Automatic annotation (TrEMBL):
This is DUF2071 domain-containing protein. It comes from Flavobacterium psychrolimnae. It comes from the Bacteria. Pfam families: DUF2071.
Length: 237
């Protein structure tokens, strides 16, 4: 039985190229930074985590919620296979119990903050807004898209960002948690406008304040799907 079954829906992804040196201290043991065309990426992602079931059970008042996370990309070679995964620097949710379980049992980096979202379907477009409150100020991921879905092209940047099927969490310098994420290949809505406003320093600290001066390399909206998260395993070097 899968540890968790859910849906990840309407994933607004804002992607930046950064110097890989700033991420080295976050790289879990046994993995290395995964590059696309020589570029190292971090992504800010806002989405809906819906219909959550843990070990087959629906948890009252914790089955549907927003999440915003900051992540980067790694790979691990094992028995001749390349496993491509994501590492989460920060994950924000509106439910304390979610943060407690993830931080206690998965060594993740969840924070609980006030959150809200708005989804609009217009005649020829869609609008996706995710907001979270820090120091009495609302931060916003806000994108407008075309109304109809399109494919995520093979060998594209969007494919690189979305097609990572493992999660890796640093325990210490010699141990790592690994878990597998399963989902079908996603489609996307083409983004026509990005009006996101994020106070990077107040949300992520001085270390990531520099991102306010960067232009995103891309912004897109992955439609998402049902997903599963398989139980974790510990890797020891």
């Amino acid at each position: 039985m899968s540890f968790l079954k859910a849906e990840w829906n309407n994933l607004a992804m804002i992607n930046y190229e950064v110097n890989p040196e700033i991420l080295q201290k976050y790289v879990p043991a046994g993995t290395e930074i995964d590059f696309w065309n020589g570029k190292c990426y971090v992504s800010f992602i806002g989405f809906l985590f819906e219909n959550v079931r843990v070990l087959g059970m629906k948890i009252p008042f914790h089955s549907d919620f927003e999440e915003v996370n900051l992540r980067f990309y790694v790979r691990r070679f094992e028995n001749g296979t390349c496993k491509r995964g994501a590492v989460f620097i920060s994950e924000i949710v509106p439910k304390y119990a979610i943060s407690f379980v993830a931080n206690t049992f998965y060594n993740e980096h969840y924070r609980t903050l006030p959150m809200k979202h708005t989804l609009k379907v217009n005649e020829n477009s869609r609008e996706f807004i995710y907001q979270w409150k820090v120091n009495n100020n609302w931060n916003t991921i806000q994108v407008a898209t075309q109304k109809n879905p399109i494919a995520i092209e093979p060998d594209s940047e969007a494919e690189f960002i979305t097609e990572h099927y493992f999660g890796y969490t640093k325990i210490n310098e010699n141990e790592t948690f690994e878990y597998q994420v399963t989902h079908p290949r996603w489609q996307q809505y083409e983004v026509t406008k990005n009006e996101s406003v994020i106070d990077f320093e107040s949300v992520y600290g001085k270390e990531f304040a520099f991102i306010k001066d960067l232009k995103p390399t891309s912004v897109f909206l992955a439609i998402g799907s049902k997903i599963t998260i398989e139980d974790k395993r510990k890797i020891k070097l």
